[in-house]
Amino acid sequence: MERLTYKTNGKYMNTVVEQAPPYAIDCDIDTAITKLAEYENLEEQKKLLILPCAVGDTVYEVQELRKRIQAYTIIAIHISNCGNLYGWELKDGKGVYSNVNGFSEYAIGKTVFLTKEEAEAALKEMSE
């Protein structure tokens, strides 16, 4: 789909993406409503997914027994009726693997974190 907006100074604006930098234009309201309706239709049909991370992102696993945080790169995302599964590999090939080669989305916020700061806070809490 063609992008109709860009964000600047915390505010969304209409845009012509071929221009550098993009500049504000008057967007046809019917076009904007049609695009929003398409997204809403996809969401109702369970065809619109909002994933917490993407292939190439870094995630952080708290390894409680080792008292450490291990960084991984997401290499695959598997979507099924049982939930989303994320395949990973060691970030830059450095570190110690856990006993699994990925995680379920349910682990996010429990043992797997999207930022190092969240992982550090969780490890500190586990150590107390």
Q: What does this protein structure show overall?
A:
With 128 residues, the chain is an alpha+beta fold. It folds into two domains: 5-44, no CATH class; 58-127, SH3 type barrels (Roll), CATH 2.30.30. The chain is built from two helices and seven strands. The protein has helices at residues 29-44, 116-127; strands at 5-8, 11-14, 58-63, 68-80, 83-90, 102-104, 112-113. It has a five-stranded antiparallel β-sheet. It has a two-stranded antiparallel sheet with strand order 1-2. A hairpin with a 2-residue loop joins β4 (68-80) and β5.
Name a few traits of the molecule.
single chain; 128 residues; alpha+beta; SH3 type barrels; 2 domains; 5-stranded antiparallel sheet; two-stranded antiparallel sheet; elongated
Architecture blueprint of SSEs:
Elements: E1 5-8, E2 11-14, H1 29-44, E3 58-63, E4 68-80, E5 83-90, E6 102-104, E7 112-113, H2 116-127
Antiparallel strand pairs: 1-2, 3-4, 3-7, 4-5, 5-6
